[in-house]
Amino acid sequence: MTPASFDYLSPASLEEALGLLKEHGDDAKILAGGQSLIPLMKLRFTSFPYVIDVSRIKELKYIRKEGRKLTIGALTTTAELEESGEVRDEFQIIHDACSNIADPLVRNMGTVGGNLSHGDPGNDLPAVMIALKARFNLQSASGKRSVSAGDYYKDTFTTDASPEEMLVSVEIEIPDGRFGAAYVKHKRRAGDFSVAGVAVAFSLDGSGRLGSAGVGLTSLGPTPLRSAGAEKALEGSKPDGEGVKKAVEAARADSNPSSDFYGSREYKLFVLGKIMEKCVAEAAGRAQKEGSA
Ligand SMILES: Cc1cc2nc3c(=O)[nH]c(=O)nc-3n(C[C@H](O)[C@H](O)[C@H](O)COP(=O)(O)OP(=O)(O)OC[C@H]3O[C@@H](n4cnc5c(N)ncnc54)[C@H](O)[C@@H]3O)c2cc1C
Which atom of ligand 1 is nearest to the CA of 193? Predict the structure, then answer.
């Protein structure tokens, strides 16, 4: 099928894009890499009078690292993030997710901003950003604001961004000292969306106990999820101890997956337990090596 007709707008700068979003408001939709939006439009699941293609805005295409802080421009592709040496070496959890998104064709086109803003509970980057307690920077013609990744997802395909706002960048800051993070995705075949995915990030103290923890979940509810229960269970526990079992139970309680093509609800909750144990062990291993996440 072909999409319903629309006016195609192609701003060359952020300022121009924000002006168009202000002018057309609810009638317009941002198009970035098109990997999620175009299939929906072609199937006529959705249509808009105006499509604002932001892919020419070069100022939003960057990866900047200053010490333990990483800032990613929204139009950076998931392939660019995957191929960044700094990300692979120092923010391995992001590399875990990017290298598991679909296939190279999709990763070459799909953007970080699109992956995070589509609001698809099956997209891999949101759980990672939730676990890392990332900040999402939003901008409109009237101003700027920042939202924590854990507060960005309101419903399936619905985020906290208003129709006039655009996600412009993502900021991640990891604490000094022994910090570890990992993302484990269980999928049926190469290139698939996940059956379930778990992202975990935490600091380790001198006695090998977990400090502040972040836990994000993929494909386990109507939105990308934060499991505050699992975070609480992990904090103060040993990475190979009873706390992990309690974290699995808490994450199951915070989840609400539906049975579908990828597996039954029961199977997804079973998988959650297995991959959370693996994910905590992987993150703990990384935390032993200071300066890497
Ligand atoms: C075959 C296939 C398999 C896939 N498998 C996976 C997978 O395993 N894991 C995974 O994570 N993803 C997967 N995806 C999705 C893919 O990663 C998309 O690239 C991503 O979800 C959307 O990024 P995009 O830049 O293409 O966004 P678009 O499709 O252009 O836009 C998606 C949505 O985000 C909004 N948007 C885009 N940019 C912004 C912004 N800066 N600010 C505010 N709103 C914005 C758009 O308005 C739209 O609503 C798959 C896609 C395909 C086609």
Answer: 8
191-212 pLDDT, tens per residue?
Answer: 999 999 999 999 999 999 999 9
Two tokens, residue 7: 């006016």
> For residue 37, which atom of ligand 1 is closest to its CA?
29
pLDDT in tens, 127-143: 999 999 999 999 999 99
Q: 127 with 186, same domain?
A: no
Q: How far is CA 26 from the centre of its chain?
A: 24
Q: Is position 1 within any domain?
A: no
Beta bridge partners of 75: none
Are 113 and 149 found together in one domain?
Answer: yes
Question: Ligand 1: residues within 6 Å at CB?
Answer: 29-37, 39, 74, 101-102, 106, 109-111, 113-115, 117-118, 123-125, 161, 166-167, 193
User: Domain limits at 234?
Assistant: 179-287
Q: Is the dihedral of CA 72, 78, 82, 83 positive or negative?
A: negative
Which of 37, 57, 76, 112 to mutate to test ligand 1, by most ligand atoms within 8 A of the CB atom? 37
